[in-house]
Amino acid sequence: MRVVLAEDSVLLREGLVWLLRSAGIDVVAAVADAEGLLRAVDADLPDLVVTDVRMPPSHTDEGLRAALVLRRQHPDLAILVLSQYVEERYATQLLSSATSGIGYLLKDRVADVPEFLDALRRVAAGGTALDPEVVAQLLLRRHSDPLDRLTRREREVLALIAEGRSNTAIAETLVVSESAVGKHINNIFTKLELPGAEKDHRRVLAVLRFLKVS
């Protein structure tokens, strides 16, 4: 896996470079601003971009805007965005831009190295990785919609899917069997009227419906 990293904090950037390389991941470039990120991706064509939301010069949303530009220019490029805080608007913008290979995590998650690396690899493989706090805050402001058809357990399963969990991980978290998880997921697809068309990634579509960005 080839990664371009964008983070303006020298300590965090160098720490992430060391962490990723220690895990056998090839960091082909590590830059400090959005312009450097755009140039590095064009030059190195990585598999994955890991970028902070806020970078120079204004420290507002330069990293996110660069990520959105990159997804338009390179639709197959996987992107994992790191943020200091839960910022719903940014998360929704990112998720609205694509249905696969997208992640949004709080920087605190980096401290849990196995979890962070697992999320990174999921995103690089075309999956999603959403921070549980992001999912929780987005869920709080959702109102009456087709999701109301879901049972409490089905909503729990869907929230874990939104975090990027596999069926095995969901089963372990909820202390149920994998077959039970599979039944809940099939019920979710049915209730959200997501057909089994070959081209549709139904797990991602369900997450987008859950977050109201589709």
From TrEMBL:
SMART domains: HTH_LUXR, REC. One of its GO terms (molecular function) is DNA binding. Residues 2-122 form the Response regulatory domain. Keywords: DNA-binding, Phosphoprotein, Transcription, Transcription regulation. SUPFAM superfamilies: C-terminal effector domain of the bipartite response regulators, CheY-like. Signal peptide: none annotated. This is DNA-binding response regulator.
